[in-house]
Amino acid sequence: MTRSFFTCACAVTLTAVLGQSRNTDLLRFVDPMIGTQRMGHVYPGATAPFGMVQLSPDTDTIPYAVNGTYNPEVYRTCSGYQYDDSTIVGFSHTHFSGTGHSDLGDILLMPTTGPLLMNPGTAAHPESGFRSVFHHAGEKAVPGKYEVLLEDHGIKAELTATTRVGMHRYTFPRTETAHVILDLVHGIYNHADKNVWTFVRVENDTLVTGYRQTNGWARTRTVYFAMAFSKPIARYGQQPDARPQEYRGFWRKFDQNHDFPEMAGKQLRAWFDFDVKAGEQLQVKVALSSVSTEGALRNMAAELPHWDFDRVVRETQDAWRAELGRIRIESKRPEVLTNFYTAMYHACLAPTVYQDVDGQYRGLDQNIHTATGFTNYTTFSLWDTYRALHPLFNIIQRERSSDFVNSMLAHYDQSAHHMLPIWSHHANENWCMIGYHAVSVIADAHAKGVEGFDAKHALDACAATARHRGFEGLGEYMDLGYVPEDCSGSSVSKTLEYSYDDRCIYRMALSMRNEDIVTEFLIRSENFKWIFPPQGRFALPRLANGEFITEFDPLDTHQKGFIEGNAWNYSLYVPHKPDAIALMLGGPKGFREHLDSLFTMELPDKYFEHTEDITRDGIMGNYVHGNEPSHHVAYLYNYTDRPWMTGKRVRDVLDIMYKPRPDGLSGNDDCGQMSAWYIFSALGFYPMEPGSDAYELGAPVVDRAEIPLPDGRTFKVIVKGQGPKNGYVQHVELNGARLDRTTITHYELMAGGVLEFTLGPNPPNF
Amino acid sequence: MTRSFFTCACAVTLTAVLGQSRNTDLLRFVDPMIGTQRMGHVYPGATAPFGMVQLSPDTDTIPYAVNGTYNPEVYRTCSGYQYDDSTIVGFSHTHFSGTGHSDLGDILLMPTTGPLLMNPGTAAHPESGFRSVFHHAGEKAVPGKYEVLLEDHGIKAELTATTRVGMHRYTFPRTETAHVILDLVHGIYNHADKNVWTFVRVENDTLVTGYRQTNGWARTRTVYFAMAFSKPIARYGQQPDARPQEYRGFWRKFDQNHDFPEMAGKQLRAWFDFDVKAGEQLQVKVALSSVSTEGALRNMAAELPHWDFDRVVRETQDAWRAELGRIRIESKRPEVLTNFYTAMYHACLAPTVYQDVDGQYRGLDQNIHTATGFTNYTTFSLWDTYRALHPLFNIIQRERSSDFVNSMLAHYDQSAHHMLPIWSHHANENWCMIGYHAVSVIADAHAKGVEGFDAKHALDACAATARHRGFEGLGEYMDLGYVPEDCSGSSVSKTLEYSYDDRCIYRMALSMRNEDIVTEFLIRSENFKWIFPPQGRFALPRLANGEFITEFDPLDTHQKGFIEGNAWNYSLYVPHKPDAIALMLGGPKGFREHLDSLFTMELPDKYFEHTEDITRDGIMGNYVHGNEPSHHVAYLYNYTDRPWMTGKRVRDVLDIMYKPRPDGLSGNDDCGQMSAWYIFSALGFYPMEPGSDAYELGAPVVDRAEIPLPDGRTFKVIVKGQGPKNGYVQHVELNGARLDRTTITHYELMAGGVLEFTLGPNPPNF
């Protein structure tokens, strides 16, 4: 099979029906526990698709810093939950899915019995605090519902959620001391100064409101809540604040620790006591808002006015069924079904809704804005998700894609820097990682015909962002063609990623006939060339005086010039010019041999130890799947003399690096990027260059797949010869016509039709 | 002259005209420097009447606590300014007028030249920081404008303000280093943890926005601002934050200290540099909002869209002329004119507007509300101001009185305690001092026919507040008839004040025919009797078991049972039953002798040293004018056998305790209460029992006075025989008919007419 671009495919209609799988409840293929152990960093709790509330158990309270020094242990609980932990400190309402740095964990509730203990205690001595021992045998997680037995208290806790409201159902044993702790001190990646302010009002005997304001990864963030109980509070109070407090005299007039309805301070914990019978269920609804407690109350009134817990589970699970059903697959291998639909589940956890039911939300400027004509979202882990997650959305979540672009444009409009988001969450820019990949997300949406946003404004925003001279060496990049390492670190990674991002802007400008931008960014998109020394195999960091830094170790991720990827992996990061890279590395054959080396070399342990965010399973040779810069690398084989190696490598990665078990994710899921890679690759194609309309072909692991499309069309993937030993694509047909290229286009996909792979145990007769 | 109640007065029209004084510019009688030295605690800066912005120089940065211990020195600068200080640290935009505890001092600006210094330095070494030496010769304060020469920097600074916007005009010398420091660390009554969060955005090269959030006397408070410069910022930056900061790594990507447009942290100071020529004027407009920076921007756009400093001065001074002109007096004594109109000025500084131009404001529940049908105000120093200031408003500021009641009702509606304000400011209840005197303010407004609020809702709010069992011994008071000292301190003061407040509720309920409340609160209003032991001269603290605490010193303010007044003064605090007190103290003659003792006794120094908030001038014998509980005491002579002594004592107090000089206020002006006492008393009458419609007659110090009334009516005060030696009222005529009583009613006043006092050098022929 020779590869060639620009070949038209005939449209052929396939009439085959996927049969039984249509009627299967896809929910049963989702296991939210996958990825909760070790590196996956996902959370097992209850959430609606893209929900604002992520109500999930937190298994420890690891401080971000000990004696002022970063505590690496905190990394274990980026999602609040680690499968190996033995205790639960409570259930908080906000969580990231799969991140490698963290924040959130807001508004923790913990039901307890026995003596009122107002501190979480320690994992070694859970009896010293309100936390409880739990075992996985007493735990059950399904989309939209989580339950666990809190053994120390004899309480069964069940959780569910609508988009903006978390709902708890606690079944108490016989007890005369039934407490619910509201812990506003608790948080993920908490440090001593993280809480800026906390505020609680007991509005009446069943309603409590308040907020938690933090200075964390989001520098200036406030989460408002409204909490309703299904039965009256019998007594309540707050933990006495041990901190010396100025002006306290004026507050001594009341007993502030008991039944005092307005609490405020930096470290608030409150308790609420209830009179319950044995087996009685206490229910709690907690609505969130970024706007105000009134906003939270409106969200509760609109989304969850009733007390029917099971109905919420049912409706949220129906919402999940709809999202999961956007791709239907068949496989004889249960692990493929579980991996695939769990990936689909994880791919629908971020970005998250970030507005109240009336459209109001807190913007980056900390003012209250109203989203008009779109739904506002937050949690844009863009360095990760531009690669495959957003392209996936541009197929199966096109309305949300438009919302995402509009949300990023709102961020741009509110930005004092006049920049699109880099890594943004909860009305904040946290500036995490490099590049300005919002431009990729926008260009990809534009290239793929997503509508509903102002393309001209979007292109302006992309160009303005890419021209911000003060940002991470961009000024020098614009002047010299590369980021000099002596001006801004990780300069190789940055130069490569800027160069790719610039290609996205060029493509978008080209399609919009904006000549100025086209010229400027076409030139910039070639900048990757400046950091490859003549005859070199690796991109090298370069100084402002033009010299290359040649003394360096291409296996070391912590090498000057690089971040989250060593020179071996990063030097392949020119997704928009794979042929150029192939040429630099000796043409199709030399390039292939280079890739083979990558996948098969022996990486000494010392290098792995320095590699963040991944398990040993996340590495294949020196190919690092657990971090994103390599996600397109297997597809580069399409630009070698043995393109079928793409499918071979991809299938190996799919099978080795994704397992249907708690430790089954080999690296951080990164807000769905790792999962989106699985979804695409399992289907047999991948968006190597987001911003273009091409998908590189690989080799599917599904038996069949069906993607419902607008206007009743369907895109189908059919696989002949699927089997564990048949790792090589023999040939591919699109609508019955054999393809003589290794790509299909987005428009071919969206037109509907059938993509048929034929697999075999050996490379095809090339 | 025998005294008798319930005598009708004939309405007579006086045709005399006040002549020249109508055309006098009253502004020239106001000296904002009066009361800035020692105990007055007023500020000399620029503000509009009842303005949200109080733009004034702060002369020191005294910490609230040193090593965790309250620093009594801080008390000197409750208003930010002490006349005796030698340096100015800058100009901040919020100040209390005359309080005895403090807060505010938000958003300090300081123009400087020379090396950029980012700390205020010390008074002893002003050159070590950005502060500057100043002298009163280089200073000028008039209503609506303040100016000062900042000698260390050679900068003339001029300040003015609209209701919501402060305006600065800085005239620079020849310099290549013209800085403006924006100090968000600075505040009044600042302690190390007071700043909760600060936030600054440089929106463009002439506009900066941000906020300061504090935990001070107001526990949870945020002031938003928008600041516009009249010329582009050349360079800007922030003071590097020395505090270890978690997550800082993510921000290191930028140089955050220079030209980084989004600053946030707990202790922010920013600098803005300008290129100026010698003599060039840089102007700055700073708008405030309790809602958001957008709210501040809207306030600026609506109130001060232009750059004409002199026009702002002109318009704000016109607003002041209108307020001052609500009472026109004549006097041959310049000091009376100055004292009177300075008192009028000070009486229009609080409460302050607390809403944006669109009616939005932050409520007590921290949510954003919109004032509909009224203007929302804050800064209710009610323990002070219910006595004379609000009654004064019920004559000359009746529309604002309605707004004040509606503002207090909004507070009630938003209160988690379901209580009216005690001492509230900036969306917070600070619980300062005792009683629930909002009910007095409401009842007085109701009794005096102020309209525009829901009287039924107001009465409900009054009763609910008075029934809050958890508040300061109220539960026990309701059960036992008095506050037991062993349950809640200052129990005598509380019992007496609750009893008076209950009379207010009774009166209001009576007029509204609410029989349940009438009965309950009539009984409660007699509760003062329970703390007077049989045959005792002083009210005594009592225990829950019924016993009196008899071992105590009636001269000691810090005696158990009392607050801000000793037993001598406080035992006279039954303003609603002066005849009952007179009877207890031996009838008219015995009562008079008791009062004479009070005014003439020798108070040993040791007692004065323990008396807060007043200068030595604030005491006459053991009569303590510098604190409020005695403010009605001189008028009690009307209930003795020598009622003319009222006038005699009042005139002595007016002349001795109010002087037209910086140290001329003998105690804290207390948001205008001390000034309102002067205004009433100078006119010859006083509201001894707010909530009733009666004014007790005293003896005027004005020669004539005229109060313009609605519908073209006028109430006039004419004095025959005015002169320093004529301290005794001979007789009083109302509209030509001689009064055989010592009171007039509000309705007589509001009907217009003439009140004519005839004074003489000796007591009248009685």
Descriptors:
homodimer; 766 residues; alpha+beta; Beta-galactosidase, Chain A, domain 5; Glycosyl hydrolase family fold; nine-stranded antiparallel β-sheet; six-stranded mixed β-sheet; 38 strands; 25% helix
Give me the number of helical elements of chain A.
18
Which CATH architecture of the domain at 36-321 in chain A would you pick?
Distorted Sandwich
- Assess the beta-strand content of chain A as a share of residues: 15-25%
Q: Specify the oligomeric state.
A: homodimer
Predict the CATH topology of the domain at 36-321 in chain A: Beta-galactosidase, Chain A, domain 5
Low-pLDDT parts of chain A are 1-20
Q: CATH class of the domain at 36-321 in chain A, anyone? A: Mainly Beta
Distance between the termini of chain A: 6 Å
Helix content of chain A: 10-25%
Strand order of the largest sheet of chain A: 9-10-11-12-20-16-15-14-18
The number of distinct β-strands of chain A equals: 38
Question: Could you tell me which chain pair has the largest interface and how many residues each side has?
Answer: A-B, 51 and 51 residues
